[in-house]
Amino acid sequence: MKGNAHSYNSAAEYNPTELLICTASRLMQDNTTAFIGTGIPMLAASLAQRLHAPNLVAIFEFGGTGAILDQLPMAVGEQNTFHRALAASGICDIVETAQRGFIEYGFLGGAQIDPYGNLNSTVIGDYNNPKVRLPGSGGGNDVGSHCWQTIAIIRHDKKRFVERLDFVTTPGYLSGPGARERAGLPPGTGPFRVVTNLAVMGYHPISKRMMLMALQPGITVEDVHSNTAFNLLVADEVEHNPPPTTQELKLLREEVDRDKLYI
Amino acid sequence: MQVIQSGVGELIQTPDINAFREWNREKPTALIDKTMTEAQAIDRFVNDGDYIGTELYGTVRCPMSLVYEIVRQGKKDLRIAGQGVLELDMLLAAHLVKALDITYIGLEVYGVSNCLRREVESGRIERVVDWSNAAIAWRFKAAAMGVPFIPVRSMLGTDTLKYSAAKVVECPFTGEPICLLPALILDVGLIHVHRADQYGNAQIDGISGFAAELARASKRLLISAEEIVDTETIRSQPDRTTIPYYLVDAVVEAPFGSHPGEMCYAYMRDEAHIREWVEASKKERSTREYLDKYIYSVADHHSYLELVGQDRLEELRRE
């Protein structure tokens, strides 16, 4: 699909961040619980609530449950994370809720991702002598440990999509099938999707390796391979994501991020 | 109980739970006036080398006036529970931190903390031990429970665990691997609240973050409050008291005490000021200029607020 339907926009009319947000937003379902991390997940949740998921129960790690995301939170503990919310508690309650199996989806970012969906947000280079010290796990490790299905949102290039991480901050499928369970993580949990500016990936049901499932508008399978530093599996039938709609872009620009902090 | 894996990270603060009990036994339980200034509270209760924790997170309900005073008094070689943004950035900027149990120190929408990078990459911080957010909060919870560790299912299988001081054991009940986190007992806890009385009974509006846990994990607890209220106000809604007086050593009245951070239902964060800090923090020299302007050359919190300006503060209330 090349954006020829009249309600769609051509690639020139949106930027990669807008595409990431719109694609992530479409994965958020009405009446589900979703652990929302800082940044793009917040914008995607706000957009989803305005469109197809008015009852998306957005959960923020420092205590906000079921906020109405009229205003974009600038931080995971700020007052917009519990604006007109259903409950306002604290971090232990929220992560324990995830640990008890109540939170279906977890939306995360990261600096690097590997074929098993493990994420690095701690250091680039050697841990004891880091080239770049990144912020650290934050709630990332907790989300990736306890939510039933985690969705990573990350820009797609060879520096980020690597065979081996410099540091495994947040567990994906670790070293492969069964590794999460052997490590003591809750059975049945793990990475579900990776959303990028080039594609949407899932995981092979047996090998648990990352698998290309859908291409973003105007992107080819070769484009994805050439921006991935590991052997990416490809689904038998690769879908083509429709571009952001006029309505999505209008809401995103005029309401969700009207101060243009991200887009 | 069989230990399957031990994190290689150093235990920056040992969970001596019996010593903590002895300490708590000696804490006064009389209803005495604990109000004082930031300068008095930091001078009396914070020592070089102390292990310090702050609440909340990001730019929310930050105990900034207390932290500015720590910087002003130059309390050094601090060991820190690194779960924060603005307040910890100030301590890092002033080169006061020696060891960090870290979960996240960054500037959220503005990216990686420049001060954290400089301090860690230069080796000025001697020890950094990584944990997850919930792990740090749960470590406080273990101390609050009065037990030496707490079993959780975070961190398993990752380098976050490998480089931490956590342990994995075979659960004696289920036989499955489980992560044990050591209790984290703070020498000093700093919490900014909406209101407190002179004795230290403290109430928080909105999310409570990890205030309840951190307060109960602290040997010395310094509370700053937007407003000091009559004890009758506390007694009229005792269910709202997150922190009872006997945990508290000092009560400091600090209106706009979270500035440039926010205080829910009271004032918004000062975006322009935060951007000023983000810009300043990019270079060592401009960082120093910022500290000079807003901390070193300012006598106290009252003078800081004058420098920021009453008009600006009123705008933050209205936004």
Structure description:
- The complex is a heterodimer of chains A (263) and B (319).
- Chain A has a single domain, classed as Glutaconate Coenzyme A-transferase.
- Chain A has seven helices and 14 strands.
- Chain A has helices at 16-26, 40-50, 91-99, 140-146, 179-183, 221-226, 246-256, and strands at residues 33-36, 57-59, 64-65, 87-88, 105-108, 112-113, 119-120, 123-126, 129-133, 149-153, 190-195, 199-203, 210-215, 233-240.
- In chain A, the strands form four sheets. In chain A, strands 2-1-5-10-11-12-13-14 form an eight-stranded mixed beta sheet, with helices on both faces.
- The longest helix of chain A has 11 residues, at 16-26.
- The two termini of chain A are 24 Å apart.
- The model of chain A is unreliable at 1-6 (pLDDT under 50).
- Chain B is an alpha/beta fold and 319 residues long.
- Chain B has one domain: Glutaconate Coenzyme A-transferase (3-Layer(aba) Sandwich).
- In chain B, a hairpin with a 5-residue loop joins strand 9 and strand 10 (202-203).
- The longest helix of chain B is centred in the middle third of the chain and has 13 residues, at 133-145.
- The radius of gyration of chain B is 19 Å and the shape is globular.
- Chain B starts with a strand and ends with a helix.
- At the A-B interface, helix 3, strand 9, helix 4 and helix 5 of A face strand 4, helix 5, helix 6, strand 8 and helix 8 of B.
